[in-house]
Specification:
The protein has 635 residues and is of the alpha+beta class. It is built from 26 helices and 17 strands. It has a six-stranded antiparallel sheet with strand order 2-3-1-9-8-10. A six-stranded antiparallel sheet has the order 4-5-6-7-11-12, covered by helices on one side. The two termini are 32 Å apart.
């Protein structure tokens, strides 16, 4: 688990010198506090004698082969060099195969298998890796650089190709040090951010700077830069399988996934929230350790957001060595840190507790297992149930057209996490829309009408002809022909999971030098879950049925039936109390940076409606505050 960066230039005047690659590497030192290395070859020429210089930088968090496996890493003759962030969990199996083919290994680390496998099969290497990774491979013989990213997007990789120079890195802050790269905000990114609370791949906040999409690789050679998908699983195909067969296959796949992710040469533990997913992962991890597994949960003073009592019950049941952290999260004190580390506007407020949990867990272990992915793979979210119910109602009668139904929108809002009035409003607003638009209604932060009322005329004129909804529609189309719950969950796997959850966990954990591994996101488990008939996962408004069928005997039964809490903070209450002075000093100030995009009176109306309790705009105000803070850091 590390941070990588680098550049390739096709003209001498675009060179990245030793000093610059060192600064690009140093700025992400938090991702790899254990070691730092750079390597350059400014004099390389392609087959026609044209300049093709290269620079690679690496920060290391030592997990496997702690004393060896330094990067940038080279093959036997030095013609292939690599920097690699992440973990290849099947490296032991790959190593045996490659040694049998005659390759010589200089380290015991997992990364060296990538180099030798690349020598044999080129860009097909990525489809053979089981892990989370962002990789850059310099191939001197073929005069090219290859970038690759894991299937689920657990590890980030940003790049920009401008004026004959490719620069890349694990974080945007490395690219921002290169003159001429991060210069101009992309107006479309602002529109996307207010829609999703993140900026979807392949875009970023900066024009001309991109995220390599999950499951893709990129090649820069004499033919230019091309990006190709290597993970071609088809979620539109459903495989007929009996309940018994599905149970046995899931047990086999998930147990093996956990086994692979227990490989570590440094202390390893597990996040334990007291929910289904983290509890199951912790239970399975206990099968592969001879001593009590270290587990960690975080508690808050607001009872509606604290589920550590359930975590304690699971820990007692599984006989783990459990630590409960008690914090009173102060988002104001860490706001600038959060915004700096996330590099571009990122509005998921659960980044706050994730930040604290990562910071505290790192004091005890270097690697933590997590239950991320269970809701998306096995239909656990309430919004799937809402979508299923709306489909049922639409088939019976158009309830959204009943006289007086709009009066529901006049109900007062609540700060409670499970506010009935707020959920009723969102449910009824979406009933008359097509399924994908209906689903977006439950996902989006600012609806289209609210964004339109917020934007200045000048900003509207800057927006391109594209619509932010096109991103969700594109991933929705991948599961054509499936039932509505499967289509929604598949869309989340391809959008919300990599763009939001994986970004949140990667940045918050790596800011503290903590590696987080997510066994449910083994690509074999993901593909299997996507192929299942929905009845194995979701039935009668209940989700995660297969997880309970397969592992119900491993954890207390009440964990499967208790209400889902999630990982949130009392954001609505904060904006009425703690954040009020900060909002006045930033978002509502005369020098507010967001005035470049938004009408001041529209922002003031949102704040007033929230403070007066007419509507709960807490999450919207959080996103605006994040954007304002980001703009103040950069302009």
């Amino acid at each position: 688990m590390c941070g990588i960066t680098g550049a390739v230039w096709l003209r001498e005047n675009r060179r990245v010198d030793d000093g610059l690659i060192q600064r690009m590497t140093d700025v992400i030192a938090h991702r790899g506090p254990d070691d730092s290395q750079t390597w350059t070859d400014p004099s390389h020429r392609d087959g026609l004698g044209n300049p093709m210089g290269v620079a690679l930088g690496f920060r290391r968090l030592s997990i496997i082969d702690v004393d060896g496996a330094r990067q940038p890493m080279a093959n036997e003759d030095g013609s292939v060099r690599m920097v690699f962030n992440g973990e290849v969990y099947n490296y032991v199996e790959l190593r045996k195969r490659l040694q049998g083919a005659g390759h010589q290994f200089a380290t015991q680390g997992d990364g060296e298998s990538i180099i030798h496998l690349y020598e044999d099969i080129g860009t097909d290497v990525f489809s053979q890796l089981n892990g989370m990774f962002a990789v850059a491979i310099w191939d001197a013989n073929r005069n090219r650089i290859v970038l690759g990213r894991d299937r689920i997007g657990q590890k980030p990789l940003y790049y920009a190709f401008k004026d004959g120079r490719l620069v890349f890195g694990s974080e945007l802050k490395s690219l921002a040090l290169v003159p001429g790269v991060c210069e101009e905000i992309d107006p479309a990114a602002i529109d996307e951010f207010l829609t999703y609370q993140y900026i979807p791949h392949p875009g970023t906040i900066w024009k001309g700077v991109h995220k390599l999409p999950p499951g893709h690789f990129a090649v820069l050679d004499a033919n230019g830069l091309r990006v190709e998908r290597y993970w071609n699983y088809d979620p539109s195909v459903e495989q007929p399988v009996s309940r018994g067969e599905a149970i046995e296959r899931l047990r086999e796949l998930l147990s093996d996934s956990v086994r692979l992710r227990m490989r570590s040469d440094v202390p390893l533990g597990s996040f334990l929230s007291g929910g289904i997913d983290s509890s199951l992962i912790t239970a399975l991890a206990g099968d592969y350790t001879d001593t009590p597994l270290r587990t960690f949960s975080i508690g808050f003073s607001v009872a509606d957001f604290d589920e550590t009592a359930y975590a304690a019950k699971v820990a007692k049941h599984l006989h783990t060595d459990h630590t409960r952290f008690e914090v009173n999260p102060n988002a104001i004190s860490i706001l600038d840190k959060l915004v700096w580390h996330y590099d571009e506007p990122f509005g998921d407020s659960s980044a706050v507790p994730t930040w604290y949990l990562s910071e505290l867990t790192r004091k005890s272990v270097t690697v933590a297992l997590s239950g991320d992915g269970g809701d998306e793979l096995f239909a656990g979210y309430e919004r799937y149930r809402a979508l299923w119910l709306s489909q049922k109602l639409n088939r019976l009668f158009p309830i959204h057209r009943l006289p007086g139904i709009g009066l529901v929108n006049r109900l007062p809002d609540s700060d409670q996490r499970h506010s009935i009035s707020r959920r009723a409003k969102r449910f009824l607003e979406a009933l008359g829309q097509p399924p994908v638009r209906r689903y977006l209604n439950w996902l989006q932060i600012f609806p289209e009408s609210m964004r339109a009322s917020l934007y200045t005329d000048e900003f509207v004129a800057e927006l391109p002809g594209t619509d932010p909804t096109e991103f969700l529609e594109s991933v929705w189309a991948r599961s054509e022909g499936r039932d509505i719950v499967t289509r929604a969950s598949t869309s989340d796997v391809l959008s919300y999971l990599p763009c939001d959850l994986m970004t949140k966990v990667d940045v918050a954990s790596m800011a503290h030098g903590l590696e987080v591994r997510q066994p449910l996101l083994d690509y074999r488990v993901v593909e299997f879950a996507a192929s299942l008939p929905v009845s194995h996962k979701f039935r009668g408004r209940r989700g995660k049925l297969l997880l309970q069928d397969a592992f119900g005997d491993r954890i207390p039964a009440e964990i499967f039936t208790r209400p889902k809490m999630g990982f949130g903070i009392p954001i609505g209450k904060w904006f009425r109390e703690d954040f009020r002075p900060l909002v006045q000093e930033t978002m509502l100030a005369d020098d507010a940076r967001i005035q470049r995009f938004f009408r001041p009176e529209a922002v003031a109306d949102l704040v007033s409606a929230h403070n007066e309790g007419r509507q709960n705009h807490g999450y919207r105000l959080w996103n605006l505050l994040i954007l304002e803070t980001w703009l103040r850091q950069h302009f």
